[in-house]
Design a protein that fits this description.
Length: about 90
Amino acid sequence: MKPPEDPPTEHEIGKRTFLVADVPPLDVDGVRTLEVGTGLWLVAFVALLPFYKSLEDDGRLWWLWTCLSGFGLGLIGLEYCRRRRAARTRG
């Protein structure tokens, strides 16, 4: 077995020593994550719609509006991340 060409970087913090491998960072822009999260908020909103009356009777109608707010904020975040990704690819 051959030894690694470049040993990993060592960082000492307090009494601990941490090894940091030399790997390239992932190119994650967050678009897919926001798409999935926004879709899940929409699914939850639609799933709760048939229970509108029982949610209202139990004082839990806020569940429905929380899902709708999560969906709306997800759309705003999605647009932000798409613009950021486009700006990164241009520059």
